[in-house]
UniProtKB/TrEMBL annotation:
Residues 361-374 have a biased composition (Low complexity). Residues 349-359 have a biased composition (Basic and acidic residues). Pfam families: NMT1_3 (PF16868). PANTHER family: SLL1037 PROTEIN. SUPFAM superfamilies: Periplasmic binding protein-like II (SSF53850). NCBIfam families: TRAP_TAXI. Residues 333-381 are annotated as: Disordered. The lineage of its organism: Bacteria, Bacillati, Actinomycetota, Actinomycetes, Micrococcales. This is TRAP ABC transporter substrate-binding protein. InterPro entries: TRAP_TAXI.
Amino acid sequence: MLGLTGCAAAGGSEPVGPNGLPQQLVWSTYNVGTGTYNDLAAIANTLTNEEGVQVRLMTADTGIGRLAPLVNGTVDYARAGDEYYYAFEGDYEYASEEWGPQDLRMVWAPPGNYGMLVREDSGIDSFADLEGKRVPRLTANTSINNKMEGFLNYGGLTWDDVEQVPMAYGEQIAGLEAGQIDALYQNVVGSNINELASSTEVQWLSFDDPDPARYETWEELMPMVTVGEITSGAGLEEGESARVLEYTIPLTTTADRDADEVYHLVKAMVENYEHYEGTTPDTKQFSFDAVLKEPLVVPFHEGTVRYFEERGVWTEELERKNDELVERGERMQEAWPGVVESSADEELERNWTEWKQNELDGPQNGQENGQENGEGNDDEN
């Protein structure tokens, strides 16, 4: 598994203040201008102004670019896309000898909405209309590519039915404006997407058909999502709505992060909520009442659990689910070296998937990997 070979993050050697927090923290997240970045910038400014904690944001345009600094100790926390889940499981690009399953934890899980945006005059009014159109295939971004594959499947299509355009996540808006692509994947709010909507008439493709057959691949491709209705977002006029994805892009850290620090961090975020709640369209989702309390695919950190217990919202059922996910992680980390040793490079991902299916996800285990199709999170900022 990936070793902690990077430089120490700021919080690792900083003295702890009377508020239980170090003087400096470093968080990784999406690029400047994205909704995800704007949310964290608002919280970082609040922690600086109200708690005296300097929070530096380190940005990256890829999942590995956001997560690797967390795992190697360069940053203290990461607000990443579904790579937090893939890394926990050792899936996709994390099914490599250099990575493997990582001991990650959720810290705070605000829900959000994400979808596929097109020009209003494009003639694309449904996902089926994407046939033959230019759709971005994002570089080093398995989580969003999986979601877009699910979108295509909903419309009765596959990647083979569209023209795939390789590009980075942050290049999509410019690509749509320049006519390089016909659709893009984004958070429904954010300064970048709002700026696009101010100059170009756009619309969100909507999941209006409840037919289960349209969603049958979603459990495999994106087990942490559900569909939710939005009435506000880039390009939506008063009275308009769209049904888009709903899931969390959580703030995460490693399991060995100091529990007292994590507890005091979430407590500070809650107690100072009034100072940032209206800063961006999505900061309201960071409120104590709005954040997700159920561990769906990755367990909560013990510091967060302590805070939930203190607030009276942590139930025996949530504890059971969290413990099951912790145990799942431990079993994967124990088994990984043996699977690596017995696998050729080209066989590793397949052998790892088979091991998990046989040892963790089979009916004899009584647990479906925590993958319930409810609110949960990715690279969707």
